[in-house]
Write a structure and sequence with these properties.
By secondary structure, the protein is mainly alpha-helical. The protein is built from five helices and no strands. Helix 2 runs parallel beside helix 5 and helix 4 packs across helix 5. The protein starts with a helix and ends with a helix. The structure holds zinc ion. The site of zinc ion has 6 residues, from helix 2 and helix 5.
Length: 85
């Protein structure tokens, strides 16, 4: 009814991720696993770079993943522009 347990679990996963891989490049596979989360945070107005800094760092240095990210953002922006019923 109220509350979103899945979201809390997600947050826990994110925190675990931050503390376990803070100084390493996560690589493309790991980046792709989190990129929809990252885009989702952009959608909800959160700061994904603060929550998923390692994804942000990877996007900064990997043109391949940045292209994927920008494509997802373009889709997101198109969705936001068209009002959903
Ligand atoms: Zn990459």
């Amino acid at each position: 009814m109220s509350g979103r347990p899945a979201r809390i679990k997600r947050f826990h996963d994110i925190m675990e991720l931050i503390f376990s891989t803070q100084d390493e490049d996560i690589g493309c596979d790991e980046c792709f696993r989190h990129i929809d989360r990252y885009v989702d945070m952009v959608r909800t107005g959160e700061d994904p770079a603060a929550v998923l800094p390692q994804v942000k760092r990877h996007l900064d240095q990997c043109g391949c993943c940045r292209e994927e990210f920008e494509a997802l953002i373009a889709i997101l922006e198109a969705e936001m522009r068209s009002p959903s019923p």
